[in-house]
Specification:
This protein is mainly α. It has a domain at 14-156. Helix content is 60%, strand content 3%. The chain has helices spanning 2-10, 20-46, 71-90, 94-113, 120-134, 143-153, 172-195, 204-210, 249-255, 258-273, 282-303, 308-317, 320-330; strands spanning 16-17, 167-168, 218-220, 238-240. The strands form two sheets. The chain has a two-stranded antiparallel sheet with strand order 1-2. It has a two-stranded antiparallel ribbon with strand order 3-4. The two termini are 29 Å apart. The model is unreliable at 215-242 (pLDDT under 50).
């Protein structure tokens, strides 16, 4: 058991697939391009919002600051996170830069989520920031790797191209990224069961969302003013804070068929609860990730919720060399 545990996290002593350098670059690019400016803008908006913060928010406890920040402090935070994004993307002082991003981005996101809004698509990027804050992803695709090559590898005659290697010994960070991805999907499946009182499989909840033609928030017998005194997800009021999709003609047509909705809802649940398959052999993990990729693509085409960032992560986290080796064995190769 211990040997299998060590082999899962640290391999067998030989270089194995390690895409965490490109994953770092992708995660930073996603945050810098899609989220940073918006989160800073959301903080400005929050200064004028009369809603009470949800208490006991772990993320807000990461920094000794009061959300939302005023202009001087907000400017410092903006510059700090921008520099961390640059350093993290190019891989200079990689782990310190990723630690700054992990703490700062989590704090900033937690502030706005405390105002009753939660960005599901950002969760995975934030989780990867924390992994990259401790895992040495700067071993590849980084300025740090280039500096190490210049100082040592060049004298030893090693090729410069080694700084772009996507293999390393004991890539526990890659395995931790897979575990994190699996937990995110399994949690989504459990939430569907929990908040539907176990009735998600009947397809009615999914049909409701797939038949919507707008991307506005829902207010079911509640007003924003009442949120000041009511904690998030309390029985009163019932508010949908996170849905931003918009149904297409195809999704509305599908929603009119109870049978299609039952099959679709059940397939979604099976996929999410089966995410532990990502941790299996390369070909099983790749087949599962391909299925999830198709699921996200279908949701994007029918509901306007493509989760493009998740699809990009899925493509990077597939063990491509392991999958290729499996295909060679099936063809009778070496």
């Amino acid at each position: 058991m211990i040997a299998a545990w060590n082999r899962f996290w640290f391999g067998d002593g030989e270089p194995s697939w390690d895409p965490m350098g490109p994953v770092r670059m992708l995660a930073v690019a996603i945050y810098a391009w899609f989220r940073l400016r918006r989160e800073l803008w959301e903080m400005e908006v929050a200064r004028d919002v009369p809603y009470a913060l949800v208490p006991d928010n772990f993320g807000l406890g990461l920094l000794p600051l009061q959300y939302p920040l005023g202009d001087p402090q907000a400017d410092v935070l903006k510059v700090t996170l921008a520099l961390a994004c640059v350093f993290g993307f190019v891989g200079f002082l990689t782990r310190p830069a990723m630690l700054v991003l992990a703490v700062g981005a989590t704090w900033l996101s937690s502030g706005y989520s405390s105002l009753q809004y939660f960005n599901h698509e950002l969760v995975l990027t934030l989780a990867f920031f924390w992994i990259l804050a401790v895992y040495p992803s700067g071993r590849s695709f980084s300025v740090d790797a280039a500096i190490r090559w210049w100082r040592k590898g060049r004298a030893e005659g090693r090729p410069f191209g080694e700084i772009f290697s996507m293999k390393s010994v004991g890539p526990w960070g890659y395995k931790l990224a897979l575990v994190t991805l699996a937990v995110v999907y399994i949690t989504a499946g459990v939430s569907k069961l929990r908040y539907s009182d176990g009735d998600w499989h009947n397809g009615e909840t999914l049909a409701f969302y797939m038949s919507r033609t707008d991307a506005q928030q829902l207010y079911l017998g509640a007003t924003w003013e009442r949120l000041v005194d009511e904690p998030w997800k309390s029985p009163v009021p019932l508010v949908d804070h996170g849905y931003g999709g918009s149904a297409t003609e195809l999704s509305q047509s599908m929603a009119r068929s109870p049978l299609i909705m039952r099959i679709t809802a059940l397939a979604t649940l099976v996929l999410e609860l089966g995410a532990f398959l990502m941790l299996g052999p390369a070909w099983i993990a790749a087949a599962f990730m391909a299925s999830v990729f198709v699921m996200h693509s279908t949701i994007g085409a029918t509901m306007g919720l493509g989760f493009v960032t998740y699809r990009m992560y899925l493509l990077l986290l597939v063990d491509w060399p392991g999958l290729a080796a499996t295909l060679r064995r099936l063809r009778g190769g070496d």
